[in-house]
UniProtKB/TrEMBL annotation:
UniProt lineage: Bacteria, Bacillati, Bacillota, Bacilli, Bacillales
Domain Helicase ATP-binding: 24-191
Keyword Hydrolase: yes
Entry EC no(s): 3.6.4.12
Residues annotated as domain Helicase C-terminal: 218-372
Keyword entries, A-Z: ATP-binding, DNA-binding, Helicase, Hydrolase, Nucleotide-binding
Keyword Cytoplasm: no
Coiled-coil ranges per UniProt: none
Enzyme kind, highest EC tier: hydrolase
Name of the protein: ATP-dependent DNA helicase RecQ
Domain of life: Bacteria
Gene3D superfamilies documented for this protein: P-loop containing nucleotide triphosphate hydrolases
Entry's Gene Ontology molecular function annotations: DNA helicase activity; hydrolase activity
Length: 499
DNA sequence: CGCGTTGGTCGTATGACCAACGCGGTGCTATACT
């Protein structure tokens, strides 16, 4: 009862949503906890409420600045003053001040990168930490190995600051990812609260087409007839932009692109316009999604295949949060799997680059002690991208500390990368096989999460039978709000060869 | 890897053909400079 009373007085809710209470009780009893809750709201309550019941600070590790800002703001709107998003939006002076007065805050949002700074760690060590929260914890597994290595250091950080009670929150994690989370955080012995990842109101469909052109034509067609709002996912920024333009050319007025190459301001603008119903359609890369709280998205189309089933689930999971019928359509043409393979492989330094670095070290033996200052030189001459360099440097530094010979390190590195690439190829193949599956698509996705389809789903998937008509825009309504484009003229457009 | 784009060839008007080339995602931070 005490929990319910606090829920009412602090947050104004009269009842918990499924899962929340169990998770909160687990955390309050001092157990490390992994919680996998369906997408949508409700996860943040799992750390906010305990925060008010335990003495000390709540540290929340967040993957995105925008998420941090959002959540901090949200808490402040709710009357909480002792909140800080400790990130690069603060000036140097503000950071310094905040560090000195860290113990005056209740909720501290921070990125894995910032967390690892010595100045931050030494201050954190002095605190009495009530709860260590890892939000979107699948990032550990999904980003830690070859994109944001600081994600893999969370366990080390946790140890340094005295093994505080830890709560890992995510919406999608396979058994492997879950194991990864527990292992890297060092919480092998923990409580688990796992809820189904199934979203019965999202119909699943794969359309196999002959080639790129056919896919594009089908995309234009679908965007013209489907009930919006919708998201179309691409694995190329250029394609996302070109397609948004193409759809506008075909008459769709309220379409915008969204990708990581855009400046922060336009990204926020597009996102806000979409959330507030001023746009019907977003042509996006995987940059679009986390933190998007819009409950009436009716369809998600994939023009390119994602690199993992989980990413797919995350991306389509943005549809139908209101519980109404929605659809996810994957467009596939033979050869499409090459793009994700290429993306996965280009992420890590290749053998030739590692060999190049080996030669460079032979010519510059003094650099081994501290290779960091040579970053620009090495990057420029070996052709390593920023991400590749960081992954390389992280591995090199870690192994150097343990006193390994550089030749041995580079050899181990090659082997390690080879293993990573194999894993990535395997997960791409899983998506590929799923596309060619002849059995229920929901069933096979769920099986990746060790789940079974236990109820019959009315509009399940293209294999079980699906009426696309159920997802079309109501053409009778002369709704001036969203005249996406003139569907009747559409076929004629398609007959005109593109310029 | 395989797609689309680009630009050259042919040989005299337009477009068919082909080889060469480029492209391909996700975010944090600091520092020095304007």
């Amino acid at each position: 009862m005490r929990l319910e009373a606090l829920l009412q007085s602090k947050f104004g809710f009269s009842a918990f949503r499924p899962g929340q209470k169990e998770i909160i009780e687990s955390v309050l009893s001092g157990r490390n906890t992994v919680a996998m809750l369906p997408t949508g709201t409700g996860k943040s309550l799992c750390y906010q409420l305990p925060g008010y019941m335990i003495e000390g600070q709540v540290i929340i590790i967040s993957p995105l600045l925008s998420l941090m800002q959002d959540q901090a703001e949200h808490l402040m709107m709710n009357g909480e003053k002792k909140v800080i998003a400790f990130n690069s939006f603060l000036t140097r002076g503000e950071k310094k001040q905040a560090l000195i007065h860290l113990n005056q805050y209740k909720f501290i949002f921070i990125s894995p990168e910032m967390l690892y700074y010595e100045s931050v760690l030494s201050q954190l060590k002095k605190l009495r930490i009530a709860l260590f929260v890892v939000d979107e914890a699948h990032c550990i597994s999904q980003w830690g190995y070859d994109f944001r290595p600081d994600y893999l250091k969370l366990g080390e950080v946790r140890k340094i600051i005295g093994n505080p009670v830890t709560l890992a929150l995510t919406a999608t994690a396979t058994a492997e990812v879950k194991a990864d989370i527990k292992k890297s955080l060092g919480i092998l012995d923990c409580s688990e609260f796992i809820y189904s990842v199934d979203r019965p109101n999202i119909a699943l469909s794969v359309e196999r087409l002959e080639n790129f052109r056919e896919k594009t034509e089908r995309l234009v067609e679908l965007a013209g007839i489907l009930q919006g709002p919708g998201i179309i996912y691409f694995s190329s920024k250029k394609m996302a932009e070109q397609s948004a333009e193409l759809l506008r050319d075909k008459g769709a007025k309220r379409v915008m692109a969204y990708h990581g190459g855009m400046d922060q301001e336009s990204r926020i603008l597009v996102q806000q316009q979409f959330i507030h119903g001023q746009l019907d359609l977003i042509c996006a890369t995987s940059a679009f999604g986390m933190g998007i709280n819009k409950d009436n998205i009716r369809y998600v189309i994939h023009f390119h295949m994602p690199l993992q089933i989980e990413s797919y689930l995350q991306e389509i999971g943005r549809a139908g949060r209101d519980g109404n019928q929605s659809i996810a359509i994957m467009l596939y043409a033979p050869g499409d799997e090459q793009l994700p393979i290429q993306l996965a492989e280009s992420e890590l330094p290749d053998k030739a680059q590692i060999d190049w670095i080996k030669e460079w070290i032979e010519e510059n033996p003094n650099a081994i002690q501290n290779i960091g200052p040579f970053e620009e030189q090495i990057k420029q001459r070996s052709g390593l991208t920023d991400v590749q360099w960081r992954i390389f440097n992280d591995f090199f530094e870690k192994k150097s500390k343990s006193g390994l010979d550089y030749r041995r390190i580079l050899q181990e590195m090659k082997e390690y990368y080879e293993g990573r690439i194999k894993l990535k190829r395997d997960s791409i193949e899983e998506v590929y096989k799923w596309i060619y599956k002849k059995t229920c698509r929901r069933e096979s996705i769920l099986s990746c999460f060790d789940e079974e389809k236990n109820a019959s789903v009315p509009s399940c998937c293209d294999i079980c039978g699906l009426q696309l008509e159920n997802f079309l825009r109501n053409t009778n309504s002369d709704n001036q709000e969203s005249p996406l484009y003139d569907w009747k003229n559409h076929l004629e457009y398609l007959l005109i060869p593109s310029e």
